Amino acid sequence: MATQHFGSGVIKIGTTASPTATFECQVSNFIISSNPQSITIPATYCQGATQKAQPSQFSVNITYMQDWGEADSLSELLYAEDGNLLYFEFDPTDTSAGTWDGTCYAVAGDVGGEGQGLWVSSEELPCPAKPTYTAAV
């Protein structure tokens, strides 16, 4: 089985569909994560309890350098839109990887960090729906 390493890409996040603000220069880690879900069906007099798989829930997990005061600030966008719906697009540089887009809820990030160090935030932005994957052609 082949392994692909996509490397870098373009990351857009904004308050409208087809966002235009790019943040790849602030982002050090961008992962669309699936979180498996299941429900427990209680035991009956006929059989024991069982588990039933449910559709996964998704989130965007992002690590970024805090950029307070910049013209297009990811830190300020997440802070201002905390709890509101954002749109994202992820277009890896490796054209064979396809593209991803969807929506996620903003979560205000950290403020501050290590003294005399780089201030970094890591947030999990929950997605209300499964992101869309568009395969490369």
Q: Can you characterise this structure?
A:
Helices cover 5% and strands 46% of the residues. By secondary structure, the chain is mainly beta. Strands 1-4-5-7 form a four-stranded antiparallel beta sheet, with no helix packed on it. Strands 2-3-6 form a three-stranded antiparallel beta sheet, with no helix packed on it. A hairpin with a 6-residue loop joins strand 4 and strand 5 (99-105). The protein is globular. It starts with 8 loop residues before the first strand and ends with a strand. The mean pLDDT is 92.
In terms of quaternary structure, the protein is single chain
The average pLDDT value, as a whole number, equals 92
Question: Structural class of the secondary elements?
Answer: mainly beta
What are the segments in which pLDDT stays under 50 over at least 5 consecutive residues? none
Rg, Å, rounded: 18 Å
Largest sheet: 4 strands, antiparallel
Q: Helical amount among residues, as a percent range?
A: under 10%
Q: DSSP strand (E) fraction?
A: over 45%
Query: What would the principal axes of the Cα set say about the shape?
Result: globular
Number of helices: 1
Order of helices and strands: EEEHEEEE
How many beta-strand elements?
7
How far the N terminus sits from the C terminus, by CA atoms, comes to 21 Å
